[in-house]
Amino acid sequence: MTAPRLALLVLSLAGASSARAAESADAFGGRIPPVSGQLFTKTGRLELTPTASLSLNDAFFSKYFFGLKAGYHFSDMWSVHGSVAGGFAEATGSTAVCPGNQGCHAATQAQLNQVAGDLKTIVGAEMAFSPIYGKLNAFAEQVIHFDLSLIAGADWIRHRAVISAVEANAGVEPDIRNTLGGHVGIGTRVFFSQSLAIRLEVKDYLYTVPVQGSSTLQNQLFTELGLSWFIPSLRGGGR
Fold first, then answer.
1. By C-alpha distance, which of 148, 141, 183, 177 is closest to 160?
2. pLDDT at 1 over 60
3. Among 49, 156, 174, 215, which residue's Cβ finds the most Cβ atoms within 10 Å?
4. Given 3.30.1300.10, 1.10.10.1020, 2.40.160.20, 3.30.420.60, which CATH number is that of 48-92+103-231?
């Protein structure tokens, strides 16, 4: 092959490659622009979140809580939050009692008063560490921004006391008592804008309850869903 023909072949292949690249670029034209950097910042901002929570691992009581959480972000990674939540508990379907000489039936209130888990109110304070900020391409049409957090805190918990079988059968009504506890958890936010985000957290609460004269460690696993509103930066840098 002569030099002129070889040069012509190389130019033809280069032109075809450029045309394919242009067609590939056109296929994604008008869809998602390149995204770089952290667009949704939290530094110096207040976060207010109404919440709804559901217990997950209690065999005796399902708890439905509603509350409010407020937090301040020192940086995009570190923040502190306070919260209050309360609601009601109802017996689960696994509380059936099956005596040997008769059929199964739902546990009576006297029997439920002998087990722990009937929480009334949780007031807490926590620190959160958010080391991960990410983006997801949703159906090649929209970029979803999210973060992931590790959570740890302390709590003041109101709960129904556990009474003995003798007291329960005598019709004694259990007191409402207070105790201190703590929690650990993980959470994520999905951002809609600079001001709004969906917030989902899973937390394990640990506390002690007196049962028949000794303290018993309890753990209650909750999932919490909320809608966060970010107030503009107190440092004047928020958007």
1. 177
2. no
3. 49
4. 2.40.160.20
